[in-house]
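Students often ask why inverse folding is considered easier than folding. One informal answer: many sequences map to the same fold, so there is more than one right answer. In these notes we will look at a single instance of the problem. The structure comes first.
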């Protein structure tokens, strides 16, 4: 049966997972972190004025206003200049960080804003399993039709499918995916169990980790031929 897809409302657990992986934007205080340098400069300046104002209480005699005024003006100007430079640099860094975060996490944020997932239903015709040449992890190739198969990687070390909550692969599957980022949020199998003894890796035609939970476009007879060579 070909893949069928239907838009569904995102559940809270899926929203939490997207937020964790996608680095969801923080509140207003995070976006205004550049104000901290200005606050620090203001506190330093206030402390300096307080120190200068209280100095006669422990100093030797009262100072005349003439030598103090130029020093106050110069210090004030320097503090304001440093504060302006700090704010300018912080604003530039904030804009750059926002652009970078949007470039990396923008698709996840769009999925969170939309609050929808694509619910894909599969019915598989066959299963072949191979071992990844580098990690030794088992890769399951679940045939959808003559030219496509769903790729599911086992978790390293425990033999469970990475995006499947069930160790047993079965004839039918329900996959929920975030549409913009393509993140697989859940994969559940049901129906008749499918089994396949893992063969050696398929060489250059082996799908990489980026195909986990995605449809791999390769003619099924080609896959069978490569698996058969690995078994020999």
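Output (designed amino acids):
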């Amino acid at each position: 049966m070909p893949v069928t897809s239907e838009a569904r409302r995102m559940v809270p657990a899926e929203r939490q997972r997207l937020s964790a992986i996608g680095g969801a934007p923080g509140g207003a205080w995070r976006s205004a972190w550049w104000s901290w340098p200005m606050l620090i400069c203001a506190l330093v300046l206030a402390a300096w004025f307080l120190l200068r104002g209280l100095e006669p209480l422990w100093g030797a005699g009262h100072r005349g206003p003439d030598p103090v005024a130029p020093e106050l003006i110069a210090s004030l100007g320097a503090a304001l200049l440093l504060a302006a430079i700090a704010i300018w640099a912080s604003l530039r860094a904030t804009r750059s960080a926002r652009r970078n975060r949007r470039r990396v996490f923008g698709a996840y944020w769009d999925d969170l804003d939309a609050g929808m997932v694509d619910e894909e239903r599969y019915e598989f015709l066959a299963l072949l399993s191979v071992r990844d040449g580098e990690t030794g992890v088992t890769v399951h190739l679940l045939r959808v039709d003559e030219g496509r198969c769903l790729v599911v990687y086992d978790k390293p070390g425990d033999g469970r499918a990475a995006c499947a909550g069930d160790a047993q692969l079965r004839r039918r599957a329900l996959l929920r995916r975030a549409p913009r980022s393509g993140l697989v949020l859940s994969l559940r199998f049901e129906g008749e169990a499918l089994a396949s003894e893992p063969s050696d890796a398929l060489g250059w035609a082996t799908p990489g980790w980026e195909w986990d939970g995605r449809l791999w476009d390769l003619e099924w007879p080609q896959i069978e031929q490569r698996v058969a060579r690995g078994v020999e």
